[in-house]
């Protein structure tokens, strides 16, 4: 998949395209349905399948104090978009000048002249242009004027969790709400995969090693950190080949402040099950969160803490299907 960060980078030989527009935070199952429609239409018409997305998120420009925590960092968003089969992504820098474009100015500049769109795939709730004044009806009208077809995709979703009694649309906000509660399994249902966070392993206080459970502490985390607690998950090492035996490792993940030791700094750290030989410092890793094990607790001393950690590891091993060393 090609990534263009400016209209000038769009190749002259792109030809006509099938395009969709969105922020695509998390590239959840609703996004995947829209993107799958884009790719399917493009393959059928022998056109390029393209997504137009924005960075930073518009909310971070218009109301930074209220902007949602993003599910994925930019690198992960692009990686997930590539996995849908798109041919290209136009990554547009979101600014107040961009936001001031009228719906027709936006469509003309980016969809018609920039990407040579012949089909535009959008949801029924699409909004674009100045003050979000452009709607689906606006897009259809502009399509008739500029020579592209508009395909509207229905909302998709299911019960989250199944059997809850109320339909929930697959959306970034639904995934955020579930993660804020520590419900990583529910978030995975919305996302279509376990939620991930990414960061470089930094030096901590080595307390885990002293307790017999050395942990990898993540710094500069990208991706939404779920509620404090202990999780079963996996530690992924993108720097290794996918078939390397240490590329994906079962882990118990802790999110919180280490209240037993009066900690104040919120940390994300992972213990790779049964491994004390790993040197991950300064390596970028990805933590995949599979299941919530328990909330963060304060223990009356080291012994009860270590006993609970032992139980956490065994529960994580069972959930992940990881054999004992």
Write a structural description.
By secondary structure, the chain is an alpha/beta fold. It is 31% helix and 27% strand. A 6-stranded parallel sheet has the order 1-4-3-2-5-6, with helices on both faces. α7 (172-180) runs antiparallel to α8. The longest helix is centred in the last third of the chain and has 19 residues, at 302-320. It starts with a strand and ends in a 5-residue tail after the last helix. The model has no long low-confidence stretch (mean pLDDT 92).
Low-confidence segments, given as residue ranges, are: none
Largest sheet: 6 strands, parallel
How far apart the termini lie comes to 40 Å
Dominant shape: elongated
Radius of gyration: 22 Å
Topology, element by element:
Blueprint: E1 2-4, E2 17-21, H1 29-45, E3 48-55, H2 58-62, H3 74-83, E4 88-93, H4 96-99, H5 103-114, E5 117-123, H6 136-146, E6 149-153, E7 157-159, E8 167-169, H7 172-180, H8 184-191, E9 195-202, H9 207-211, E10 216-222, E11 229-236, E12 248-256, E13 267-272, E14 284-294, H10 302-320
Parallel strand pairs: 1-4, 2-3, 2-5, 3-4, 5-6
Antiparallel strand pairs: 7-8, 9-10, 9-14, 10-13, 11-12, 11-14, 12-13
Helix pairs in contact: 5-6, 7-8
